[in-house]
Amino acid sequence: DPFKADPQRSDTLVVRSERPCNAETPEDQLGTFITPSNQHYVRNHLWVPDVKDGDNHRLVVELTDGTEKEYSVAEIRNNFKHHTITATLQCSGNRRAHMTAEARATSGLQWDIGAISNTQWTGVRLRDILHDAGLSVDMLPEDAKHVQFVGAEAYGASVPAIKAVDRYGDVLLVFEMNGKPLMRDHGFPLRLLCPGHVAARSVKWLNRIVVSDEESWSQWQRRDYKCFGPNEGSKVDWDEATSIQETPVQSAITSITNISKNRLANSELAKVYGLEEDAVKVAGYAMSGGGRDIVRVDVSPDDGKTWRQACLIDDESKGSKAWSWKRWEIAFAKHDVAKHVVVKAIDESYNCQPESYEATYNFKGNLTTGWHRVRVSDDG
Ligand code: MTE
Ligand code: MO
């Protein structure tokens, strides 16, 4: 049983599969800016490698000419400058269950809104390691097009080389999350963190990096994590399709709460939205890929007939670009709230989520970003 050495996990995670472990961050933990490490969603394709001596764990870096350099995790930690960034990881299958429910059947784990978490990650820049290994990071050789990553249990993926060496791309080899050593489920002792991209590229339990003119040959790069047209069915030409890298604009409602007029009185939300009666508060997250900031979150209290802009909550996200989700909140007079509350977010390139799920339907259910529509319970 390859899973027998898997770690103990918090029993508040919402389990979608046991072996391998796939579990969502619970809804009541999606409301804070930083997700507690033991509440971070878990997405494992296989078992969790049991690395006993983290410091001596080895990473091999191979360049396009075949030269290799080897590092222990202790050397990486001791010999390179540390950086801390705040970044959201989102599985490209997050919200897949909504595409299934609102459009058609999809294959894959039927995630709700919790295959996403936000963390402070500490590590060293991949750029610095590649430079040390002999790569000309400021003027990439022509055959350095992709950087491939291999995990200790055989998972693999790659990212474009220009992202890997970008000074402002903040791609890290991380050994700490939220100020503590990486948890085993999240890649102990070393993982890649490629912010702004789907989390599938942030390879855990990293033991090999290969600079190449080709993408990773792993099935997860070549036969998964791609999208196809709504008409294309499941007999598709995988080689023709482009791998998912940066993630599109996304948002979700994480809570809807009734607030009596007494409790609302003098609150910031009451002032902003001019509320003097019983109200309904709606809160959630919004994010985009590529470091694109969220500029606006529109919320409708009546299934899309009317809209208002939510308040974006200030946070202290570290990093060169907007790698973290934005939390938002809004309140409506109770009598203005109909059956469904709806949210959509807009990023700084003015990308907006599609209204329908059919618009981006793909049989794998990747990148589900249709307007999140939540039924308001009748029981007040
Ligand atoms: N890395 C390895 N080695 N094995 C994996 O199964 N899963 C990927 C990525 N890196 C995976 C991996 C996917 S699909 C996601 S969504 C993220 O890790 C999940 O990271 P987390 O479990 O820390 O949330
Ligand atoms: Mo994922």
Automatic annotation (TrEMBL):
Keywords: Heme, Iron, Metal-binding, Mitochondrion, Molybdenum, Oxidoreductase. It is an enzyme of class 1 (oxidoreductase). It catalyses: nitrite + NADP(+) + H2O = nitrate + NADPH + H(+). Its cofactor is Mo-molybdopterin; heme b. The keyword Nucleotide-binding does not apply. One of its GO terms (cellular component) is mitochondrial intermembrane space. One of its GO terms (molecular function) is heme binding. GO terms for biological process: sulfur compound metabolic process. It is found in: Mitochondrion intermembrane space. Its EC number is 1.7.1.3, 1.8.3.1. Pathway: Energy metabolism; sulfur metabolism. This is Nitrate reductase [NADPH].
